[in-house]
Amino acid sequence: MDDQGYLKVFKIQSLRFKNKENREESKESRQKNSLNTKPKTDNGELTTDNPQPTTGKMKLKAQKEIFFKELESEYRAEEVFSFFFLLTEAFFGIKRLDLALNPEIEIDKNQVQKLDAALVRLKNHEPIQHIIGETEFFGLTFKVDKNVLVPRPETEELVQWILDDFASEKKALKILDIGTGSGCIAISLAKNLPKAQISAIDISEKALQIAKINAETNNAKINFIQEDILKPQALNGNWDVIVSNPPYVRELEKKEMQRNVLEYEPETALYVKDEDPLLFYNKITRLAKESLNPGGNLYFEINQYLADETEKMMQEQGFGTEKRKDIFENYRMIKGIAQKI
Fold first, then answer.
1. 2 Cβ contact list (under 8 Å, min separation 6)
2. d(C-alpha 113, C-alpha 73), whole Å
3. Sign of dihedral through CA atoms 161, 202, 187, 141?
């Protein structure tokens, strides 16, 4: 559940634009040094050395510098860079390339205030996705807030694994997503497997409200069900695919979490007790064993520190297993293959 994914996405682009902006800043500095006159007021009088803008506008470049100064003690430089341009694109449609090509872009007073408000929230370590109100996952847009986990890039790999396994499948698959949260897994599968019949379970009514909005936004047909997966003795119906990204962060691992996760994402979707970290995996595996069709698959996103324990538990319940590493070389997902009878 770390944040490495967000950093790697922007690192190369950040370096490119930083070099370009440095060249532009040097050129602008030379131009300023060549001027011998001070700006004048409407009546021809000289202004002070540091005149205040009278138009109510501000150069976007200057606002970017404010962001770096205010956030440099809280985040890495590449994070601040990506935050700033995620905001300008979401709020004003201004991309980083636009500013690189035209450093004189200005924003008005209301736009400045909007960025200032976002800056305050970032200083409090609120997730950038919450500030924008949405995020991208598997090429789709998802609304997110404090009631759902922000989708991670590692989870995209889990979705892709399922799609690869069933790329040549002709029949209409029956798929169940357990602990759907924002609906990112179920909706991404629905968009890429249009014949599939997909249901999604979550304990949280508020999370399901977000998931339903996302399904409607992405024109995906999902059957949403509110249920505590620890309570039923059996699942309704039989399934070809069961997938889950259940709570798996132990209390002892909280010290590794960043503030944007600890303070703003739902605890019920994240944490399990140290003494029973596989609580949800055990339960879901038992339910899947009885409800998967012959040859059906069970997919989990897993705790990298408990990969072997998770695999052993699934094997003891009769599943063939395959573990996979994520883009950060951590064991992050596992497949259980139901044995054919």
1. 256, 258, 328
2. 22
3. negative
> What pLDDT is recorded for position 256?
85
- What's the angle, vertex CA 157, arms to CA 151 and CA 159, rounded to 5? 80
What is the phi-psi region of residue 329: left when phi exceeds 0, alpha when psi lies from -120 to 50, beta otherwise?
Answer: left
In percent, the amount of the chain with pLDDT more than 70 equals 83
Among 293, 301, 286, 6, which residue's Cα sits nearest to residue 128?
A: 6
Please tell me the predicted confidence (pLDDT) of residue 55: 57
- Whether the predicted model's global pTM rises above the 0.85 cut: no
Cβ neighbours of residue 20 under 8 Å, at least 6 residues apart?
100
Rounded CA separation 68/62 (Å): 10
Query: Is the CB of residue 144 less than 8 Å from the CB of residue 168?
Result: no
What are phi and psi for residue 287, nearest 5 degrees? -65, -40
Q: Is 7 exposed, middle or buried (0-12, 13-18, 19+ CB in 10 A)?
A: middle
Q: Which position has the token pair 């909005």?
A: 213
**AA identity, residue 273:** K
